[in-house]
Automatic annotation (TrEMBL), chain B:
The lineage of its organism: Bacteria, Pseudomonadati, Pseudomonadota, Alphaproteobacteria, Rhodobacterales. It is found in: Cell inner membrane; Cell membrane. Belongs to the binding-protein-dependent transport system permease family. CysTW subfamily. This is Phosphate transport system permease protein PstA. The chain crosses the membrane at residues 34-58, 220-241, 261-283, 289-311, 332-354, 407-426. Its main location: membrane. Pfam families: BPD_transp_1, DUF3333. The keyword Transmembrane applies.
């Protein structure tokens, strides 16, 4: 059905990084995530696909407790990273978010310089001992965000002055600068041109060597290209979760098949 | 549009909807015109009121910016000065003697006869001479040239505010007094330089000696105290309420109360200050420290509301971005939200301070309308403030205070316009597009 390239989709024997059990999310009275169970593996790219409003972003934001910031949002169930319950009272969400980086659906650079955007995370976590180290971290992050060549001559100009796609790659650079173990990406390529998209996909594949990457995408091709595992959400339910190759060639659920062939969405 | 005939559009429905839009468009345009008309009329009305206000202030106030002076050649008679104590000396006699040179017919040694002539000068004239001699005792025995202020009535005469064609019995100056003034004028010793006294002196019973220094310094101390208290407290309270406080009944009640506090009439704060600061804590009457505390009570809600609005205006995506890289709540607020909200906070603060600068009623209640002839040297000294000084002068019977009241209002307005200009500058300079 989809042209699945070889190599990237090979599923290695990996450890489970994130376990979600019976997760329910409510926005006030709206039941946005209904009883989701999933195991996300390390050294793997997991794609979340599904029609708009089905709860992909909501579930993604549960993994770094970003939903805590929404007053009306209530999360039930059990989410564990490396076996530790992240909703445990003793867990500080600040520490969790340093471990679980996030790229948001809309690019949101700080209204500061490009350099400061990337350097902020490493700075507050004390990752650099001096300016030279910080410079190295910033350069490395910007290179991995596939934006170094475009901004290396104007690191001090404001990040908000970049184009939408450049801003999104800056946000990716900012997220990887803190060396998270899990990287959550909410439609990171929706504002990017094909070349930048290819660069970001390259980055995602590279990040997989060390991290667990979860990516929300509306592009079936992208899910097929970069991910090893795919989860299909529909109306708040996790309908199907399996190897990407399996989902795109031989889905079990009829809704999955309808969606990837373009009949619902 | 008009060249599309029903046949061409092919469909009845689209033709009728075009027609409907066309019909309603005329009505909508008419409504918009009416609204614009009202808007322009309202702006015109407001502007003309402003022009009338400022125009009348300037036309009554401008004479106060000059002051009639008389230039005298005074012989500092060593016999009249007490060399032991320079401030004790018959300086008024020396002045009278020098004035006598222009009036050979008047016996200046007679107090009653000389009074007719010396009334041209302000009673502050001898003080001016005394201060010159005190500053430089080597002048004793010399003849010096000194410019002394004319008294209020003659100042008014010189400015044309006392009219010569008014019948003598209705005039504050009789013909003889006017003749004396004209003699001096003919001798070329009358001049009307810029009235620096208005800024450099404190209050006085005599308009020609009265100035705003006491009020300006008093207002400065009061505003400083007000700022030092209300700015940190206001921002702190706003940050807590907006960013950290749990959203529940209690915080709702607090919010409502703060909003109500901003609407409480200022005189109530004055009564509160009178009861608490003066009667209970026994703080000094008429002191800028109490005035500042009272004004701080009033400014606090303004700053809290402005700060909360500014914090709220920072888009949530910035907070999420910072939280997403692992910033703590407090780091999010102090590294990102607060700096972005600062222009709005400063604007609100300046507007609050401008309100405080113009506030009168609470200061009257704590006695900052006392008659004080020297500028305060600190926030604990008795003082007036600009608006209360205006209140005092407006209440004074002397003619000279009429124009000085307007002049003082103009000075106050200048400060207010200046502060508002800073607020507008900050707002436009740091306005951000996210
Ligand atoms: N802050 C919120 N307050 C209330 N309801 C919300 C909020 N955010 C999301 N929802 C609701 O939760 C449901 C899931 O939203 P979510 O943003 O997770 O969808 P999504 O799958 O990411 O969609 P998209 O592909 O369009 O980004 C939607 O019905 C939405 O209306
Ligand atoms: Mg989404």
């Amino acid at each position: 059905m989809y042209d699945v390239p070889h190599g990237r989709n090979e599923v290695a024997v990996t450890d489970v990084k994130i376990t979600a059990r019976n997760v329910q999310v409510y926005y006030g009275d709206t039941h946005a995530i209904k009883d989701v169970n999933v195991e996300i593996e390390s050294n793997t790219v997991t794609a979340f696909i599904g029609p708009s409003g089905c709860g992909k972003s909501t579930f993604l934001r549960c993994i770094n407790r970003m939903n805590d910031t929404i007053d009306i949002c209530r999360v039930e169930g059990d989410i564990r990273i490396d076996g530790d319950d992240i909703y445990d009272k003793r867990v500080d969400p600040v520490q969790l978010r340093a471990k679980v980086g996030m790229v948001f659906q809309k690019p949101n650079p700080f209204p500061k310089s490009i350099y400061d955007n990337v350097a902020y995370g490493p700075k507050i976590h004390g990752m650099a001992r001096n300016k030279a180290e910080l410079d190295d971290i910033v350069e490395r992050a910007l290179r991995r965000g596939a934006i170094w060549d475009e901004v290396k001559d104007r690191l001090q100009s404001p990040g908000t002055g970049l184009s939408g796609g450049q801003q999104q790659r800056l946000c990716i650079a900012r997220a990887v600068a803190t060396e998270p173990e899990v990287l959550l990406m909410d439609e990171p390529c929706s504002a990017l041109d094909p070349i930048a998209t290819a660069q970001v996909e390259e980055l995602i594949d590279e990040l997989r060597q060390n991290y667990a990457v979860v990516i929300v995408t509306h592009s079936m091709q992208q899910a097929a290209r970069v991910s090893q595992k795919t989860a299909f959400f529909h109306l708040g339910n996790l309908v199907e979760y399996d190897d990407t190759t399996k989902i795109f060639t031989n889905p079990e659920d009829s809704r999955t098949e309808s969606y990837i062939t373009g009949r619902i969405g | 549009m008009t060249d599309i005939t029903p046949e061409q559009t092919g469909s009845n429905r689209s033709r009728s909807s075009t027609e409907l839009v066309r019909q309603s468009l005329a009505r909508r345009n008419r409504k918009q015109k009416v609204l614009q008309g009202f808007g322009i009329a309202a702006i015109f009305f407001a502007l003309s009121m402003l022009v009338i206000l400022v125009g009348s202030l300037i036309s009554t106030g401008y004479p106060a910016f000059t002051q009639t002076h008389v230039e005298l050649e005074v012989f500092v008679d060593p016999e009249e000065v007490d060399t032991e104590n320079l401030s004790r000396g018959n300086y008024d006699d020396m002045i009278a003697a020098s004035l006598g040179a222009y009036f050979p017919d008047v016996d200046m040694s007679s107090r009653i006869a000389s009074r007719e002539v010396t009334q041209v000068l302000s009673s502050g004239a001898q003080l001016k001479l005394r201060d010159r001699v005190l500053a430089d005792p080597s002048l004793i025995g010399e003849t010096i040239t000194i410019k002394v202020p004319a008294s209020d009535n003659f100042d008014q005469l010189n400015k044309g505010l006392i009219k010569r064609d008014t019948p003598e019995e209705n005039r504050r100056l009789n013909d003889a007094a006017i003749a004396n003034f004209d003699t001096l004028d003919a001798a070329g010793v009358i001049s009307a330089p810029l009235n620096t006294t208005l800024i450099t002196s404190a209050d006085s019973r005599f308009p020609e000696l009265a100035g705003l220094k006491g009020a300006l310094v008093g207002s400065f101390w009061a505003l400083l105290v007000c700022f030092v208290i209300s700015f940190p407290l206001g921002i702190g309270a706003a940050i807590y309420l907006e960013e950290f406080a749990p959203k529940n009944r209690l915080s709702d009640i607090i919010e409502i109360n703060i909003n109500n506090l901003a609407a409480v009439p200022s005189v109530v704060f004055g009564l509160l200050a009178l009861a608490v600061f003066l009667n209970w804590f026994g703080m000094p009457r008429s002191a800028p420290i109490v005035g500042g505390l009272t004004l701080a009570l009033m400014t606090l809600p303004t700053i809290i509301i402005a700060t909360r609005a500014a914090l709220k205006a920072v888009p949530p995506s910035i907070r999420e971005a910072a939280l997403g890289v692992g910033a703590s709540k407090q780091q999010v607020v102090f590294h990102h939200v607060l700096p972005l909200a600062m222009p709005g906070i400063l604007t609100g603060t300046i507007i609050g301070m401008a309100q405080a600068l113009g506030e009168t009623a609470p200061l009257l209640l704590i006695g900052m309308n006392a008659f004080i002839t020297s500028a305060p040297s600190g926030p604990f000294d008795s003082a007036t403030a600009l608006p209360t000084q205006i209140f005092i002068w407006a209440d004074s019977p002397e003619r000279g205070f009429v124009s000085r009241t307007s002049a003082a209002i103009l000075v106050l307005l200048t400060f207010l316009i200046f502060m508002n200009a800073i607020a507008i500058y900050l707002r436009s300079r740091f306005e951000r597009k996210w």
